[in-house]
Amino acid sequence: MARIITKNYQQVLAMGFAVTEINENSNLSPNISLGFHLSETYFSQRRMYQTIMELFSTQHRFVPNYQCNTESNVIAVIGGLGSETSHLLADMLEVYKLPQFTYGDFGLMLNRQSHSLPLYWMVPNEVHQYIAIVRLLQHFSWRWVGLMTMDDNSGEFFLKSLLPILYESNICPAFTERISVFGFFEEFLEVQQKWKETFLVIMRSKANAVVLHGETKAMISLRGLLRQGESDYETALGKVWILSAQLDFATMAMHRDWDIQAFHGALAFTAHSREVPGFQHFLQNLNPHLVTGYDFFQTFWEQVFGCSFSNYNLDIEEACTGKEKLENVPGPFFEMSMTGHSYSIYNAAYAVASALHALSSSSVKSRLRVDRGRVKYQIIKPWQLHSFLRSISFNNGVGETIQLNENGECTVGFDITNVVTFPNHSFARVKVGRMNPWVPPDKGFSIDDNDIEWHQSFNQVMPLSLCNEDCHPGNHKKKKEGEPFCCYDCVPCPGGKISNRTGMESCTFCLEDHYPNKEQNQCIPKALTFLAYEDPLGMGLAMFALFFSWLTALVLGAFVKHHSTPIVKANNRNLTYTLLISLLLCFLSALLFIGQPDKLVCLFRQIAFGIVFSVAVSCVLAKTITVVLAFMATKPGSGMRKWVGKKMATSIILGGSLVQVGICAVWLSSFPPFPDVDYQSDEAMVLECNEGCVTMFYCVLGYMGFLATVSFSVAFLARKLPDSFNEAKFITFSMLVFCSVWLSFVPTYLSTKGKSMVAVEIFSILASTLGLLGCIFFPKCYIIVLRPELNKRDNLTKRKA
DSSP readout, 616-670? Predict the structure, then answer.
């Protein structure tokens, strides 16, 4: 007895049901009755060509291109479960311009446009299925997947077409296996060995998602492969199978007791279908004793139920009663719900009927003739249907609108179904999503994760399919040498960067006003800060500035109180007062650098500091020159006496200060300082004063350094003058301290950031001012306060031996 795939018989029944439903619809075919003829090619090209030639011959006579029975007018062919069958049919039917509706050929558009008159596809283009597969993999973040296909031309074309799309979508094939199919018994042992090798590859791979492409033969071979492997290695294979729309859970009678638990949780793309009212009732009432005209119906019944109508079949002991129910048959043998292939055939029948109805209603309809009182149509030519089938739109028996576009494709898209298996070797399809390439992209793909039931090995947790786990936040991917790009090491982000999502390719910098946290997985807003009086550092520097200001005021008070004493009057009393006042202002100018900087403070703090310090250093220079001139004026016949006096000191102070004022005026008029925010600090935004033109800032410091250097040089030369109280010595020490502080200031200032820069400048101001105050005035205060007996003219003017 011939072995048939009983699952495909539903497609025959769907055709019969559709024709019956159309003939009973008076609105669709009022004067036309449809019939159909069934042919089975049994995967034989020779048988296929013979079947096609029989279509163009008189019934029961094989005379191609000769027909004398007009009652069997063939106007369309619905067939071609596989791409090879469809293309062979098209090659022959194109000659006769006979419309062909294919329901199992998902071939690419390149193949679909190879005929002058188009075929009509009741299923979408396969290129859309590739995109749907990738969208599904991306949805579940499966980037390490296995690929399996038939070991034939269609399988090679599948890999050639899908692999570039996978790579563009950052998905890698863990393996690509070709399923071997044997055609003769002597090939079985060789194929069996290949099955074992393929099973090992699948089992050992870390890829939990496997894309399976092929046709019905591929599914039958895969079931044999899994049964062979699970039996040999005593292990069940738990994977998520992603099945292409061409596949179906079909089986042979010999596979009746085979388990299908390996496919539990599979995600299958199927041609779109809907439940057709009345179809299940139609199936439930089928009886082999009542069905006539189908030679192989009894064969189908025997194989699907494992019984026999004849006593001559010794392989089957149970006799068929005809009362068996199809709803009790496991799904791999027969499904009660209309499959995608059957629904496509159902729609194809309605497409033919709708085209005939449009043809009969149009201006080019067949002319009526009256023959013996009966109204008959002239024979309708098949080629007349093409103009109506292009871009046809109609409602089928379910009420769903079906449309064929200009390429002859049915624009219904794909259903995504979840396969749920049962211990009785049956299964159910649960629709969990859709993919329709003819709607906007954001609505073209949808899937409900909550409706999916996964394989038992995953404990109902969505499985991962990755070469290695995604890198956690705070890490980024680093490619492994010699491995696909989906395999990588996870490396912590470098300093200053973060990765805040799982599986990031690289780390990113935070915004300027944010900084990375310790784990480097998020950015934290920086606090706005500045050197405030509330800060310990700011408070300490402010207290020092105030204390030294108070100390300077005490010194000034002491000098004023003892203004008539020789030590105060020596070396220009007014010059001394001016120096003390400028030092007091120098201490107080440090307070301008503490607190929140605003526009006014930024504008004047460096200017005030520069000018006040220039006055102080000019006073020191004036004192130094006065000491030298005073000594030279004491020599007999010296002409220097006329230079000694208040005018000389005033000129030096004004001259030295006005140059600095000029520099500051240029600075303010060109690139003045302004409030700014320093984002370079690690965890805070520092409010600071931007100096505007840094060159002008260093010009101010440079000029102060020039005055200090001149003063130091003059004082150094005059340090050994033979006076008992030679002020040039103290000025030398004060200038040495002053120059040392500001020389060390420059590199320290450049190497610090934020509040530390401000603190460095404040410290330099206080240290250098304190150096001038201490070195110049401490010896004098010591004499005024503690040794008043030395504060006499004789002691100050007598020379050392």
Answer: HHHHHHHHHHHHHHHHHHTSTT-SGGGG-SHHHHHHHHHHHHHHHHHHHHHHHHH
User: Computed from CA positions of residues 50, 52, 57, 59, in that sequence, does the dihedral angle turn out positive or negative?
Assistant: positive
- The token pair at 60 is 């029961």
Residue 470 has what DSSP assignment? P
pLDDT digit string, tens, across residues 538-585: 999 999 999 999 999 999 998 888 888 888 877 678 888 999 999 999
Give residues with Cβ within 8 angstroms of 300, minimum separation 6.
Answer: 4, 6, 9
pLDDT tens, residue by residue, 62-110: 556 655 655 567 888 887 666 666 667 777 777 778 888 888 765 544 4
Residues 375-409: b if buried by 16+ CB within 10 A, e if exposed:
eebeebebebbbebbbebebebbbebebebeebbb
CATH numeric code, 536-797:
1.20.1070.10
Phi, psi of 419 (to 5 degrees): -90, 120
- Give just the sign of the alpha carbon dihedral 421, 426, 432, 433: positive
pLDDT tens by residue, 414-469? 999 999 988 888 888 999 999 988 888 778 899 999 999 999 888 888 999 998 88
CB 88 within 8 A of CB 111: no
Token pair of 241, please?
């199978």
HSE value, Cβ hemisphere, 13 Å, CA-based, for 642: 3
Burial of 364 (0-12, 13-18, 19+ CB in 10 A): exposed
- Cα 207 from chain centre: 21
Amino acid (one-letter) located at 200:
L
> What is the CATH number assigned to the segment(s) 126-273+414-458?
3.40.50.2300
CB atoms within 10 A of CB 270: 23
Domain boundaries, given as residue ranges, for the chain: 126-273+414-458, 475-523, 536-797
* Cβ pair 86, 80 in contact under 8 A: yes
